[in-house]
Amino acid sequence: MSSKTDIALPLDKLSLDLIKHMEGQLSPERRKRTYAVLVSTGSFNPPTYMHLRCFELARDALTSEGICVIGGYMSPVNDAYKKKNLISAEHRVAMCQLACKSSEFVMTDTWEASQDSYQRTLTVLSRIKTAISGGSLTSTDDLMAMLVCGSDLLESFSTPGVWIPEQGHM
């Protein structure tokens, strides 16, 4: 069970100019702004228009609440995920990358798909948050990694043993 940790997070579509622009415009007392990066984990077998549309809807809802969304990531599960008719992670990653080409802010993170074993969703969220804030792009306190999910994943929140209750907030 090895872990491939040296896979870089794509940053090319992050709206880092939003951070600089917003901080430059605001008075010192209003500079404390909350930023979010959206993350969707799943099989993406295949990725669909609705997967991308969920990112847009989440961004719009958060923006209306004053949260600045700086980017989004699709994170396909690895081949250890046991799902009937799941095609290879390599092909699902390629499909996600093609799907993200038309998006101005959604990218594909290949890290989870490259791992040899199952990765908890919280691990994926934490890795993305750390990669962005650790690169001094924004502070950890100002950045939230937010899960974008469908009703199937949302329903699993009430299934005992699937989620660790103490890790519900990040």
TrEMBL record:
Record's signal peptide: none
One Pfam match: CTP_transf_like
Domain annotation Cytidyltransferase-like: ranges: 41-157
UniProt protein name: Cytidyltransferase-like domain-containing protein
Phylogenetic classification of the source organism: Eukaryota, Viridiplantae, Streptophyta, Embryophyta, Tracheophyta
